[in-house]
Amino acid sequence: MCRHRFVSMLIIAVAAAAPLAAPYRACAALPFFDSDTEQSLFDRAKKASDDGFYDVSIRQFNRFLKKYAQSPLAGDALLLLSHAYLSSARYGEAMDCSRKLIDGDGPLKEKGMLILADALFRKGDYDAALSACAEAVAAFPDGAQKELILLIEGKCRYAQRRYDAALESFGAIARRQEPAKDPVMIDARIEMVKSYCCLGDYAAAEESAKALRQLPLTVRQRAEAGYWNGLLMSVTERHAEAAKAFEEILSLKQSATDVPDVLYRLGLSYARSGKYDAADGAFERVTAEYPKSRYYLPALIQRARVRILAGKYDDALQFIEKNLAKKRGEPYDGVAALLAAMAHQSRRDNAQAEKYFKRALKLSSDPGVRSQAFAGLGETLFGGNDFAGAIAQFAAASAVEPDPLRQIVIRSRIADAHLALRQYREALDTLVALLGERAADITESQKAGLLLNAGIASSELGD
């Protein structure tokens, strides 16, 4: 009896559940609920890519291509999949997709060649990328993707420091008689500013930068153009204008800017404008907000340096002891000793300065630190009228200095010491060589000083 009652109850329970199951099956049969229909799967994968969910997009497009290999949408799916791989820095897989596109016909073939070139460029294989660009232009001399291919070609040449050749590629895009709002043309013009700066042709860079400011730029383009305009203002010694350019970049939202880089350069511009408190504030933001940035140590160094420049020597020494000297090992030991030497030298305590410069040389193998320590010793000896000793230290600094701009300062001091010793021939030879070898790097104010000293030496020699 109990058994029959249990079975009856089970039948009733199943019967009660049945009306719920039927509507579920009916709903599941509707297209809205079918996640694997051709169009819905493609649309979902595309939306994931558009929204920046590239891992999801990659899985969905691979699923689509496996299930609907013969679909009219398969080519577009392969193209979008290759873009998702590019955006995920999976360059090998992007190149695999591109080669499948290249094996096809029509516009997808040209796009496949573009993706191959782009993947090789991003991978850092510039020679192979340039070959891919050349093949694409040869196959589609008037193709719809030609200008994007030329942009990649120019970027490859720029990365190889072939700036004249890069300008040829970018110029071919910029000279088009098309609407100036074209984003590819604007990107090419930004690249031209960068290339002119790297060539040292600051007049051409500034002319290109001015033309850019008249165009409707995206936030990204404004940030990139502003960054290079800031650098241009810096190298032409217009530091207040450089600061304004970097401030504007930081005010932009969603610009994908390297914020620590911009903050650091803003701090340098403030310091060179004599705004030491503002400079310290910019550098402090780098150290406080971006402790893992590559600018962390340079910003710490600059925070000590602006205190020295502001004449706050005790404050500088305390800052160095607290933030640099207590961090053992390179590069901190050498840098801390170098900065302490600079603080003592600025307060004219030459004995302490010499002690710390020598300590920096003992503790550091970094060429930049060693160069500045040798140069600091040279300045200390120069101030004590030991001009021959100063020449030896400046020469040692020049031998290890990696920065061409610092080389100009160091070698000009060698010439100054020769003039102080009345060694006019040596002074003139040093200045002539410097003016000839570093002509592209010398600023107008530096050039004026070097020419003045060359004129003094030449006059004394009767040349």
Which helices and strands appear, and what pairs or packs with what?
Layout (H helix, E strand, L loop, with lengths): L1 H27 L9 H13 L3 H14 L6 H14 L3 H12 L4 H17 L2 H14 L6 H14 L3 H12 L8 H17 L2 H11 L6 H17 L3 H13 L7 H14 L3 H14 L6 H14 L3 H13 L6 H15 L3 H14 L3 H17 L3 H14 L3 H17 L3 H14 L6 H18 L2
Fold and architecture overview:
With 463 residues, this protein is mainly alpha-helical. It contains 24 helices and no strands. 40% of the residues are buried. Helix 10 (183-199) packs parallel to helix 12. Residues 1-34 have low confidence and may be disordered.
Beta-strand percentage? under 5%
Spatial extent as radius of gyration: 32 Å
The secondary structure category is: mainly alpha
- Quaternary structure of the protein: single chain
Q: What separation lies between the terminal Cα atoms?
A: 132 Å
What is the mean pLDDT?
A: 87
- Uncertain stretches of 5 or more adjacent residues: 1-34
Count of DSSP-assigned helices: 24
Let me know the number of strands. Answer: 0
In helices, the fraction of residues equals: over 70%
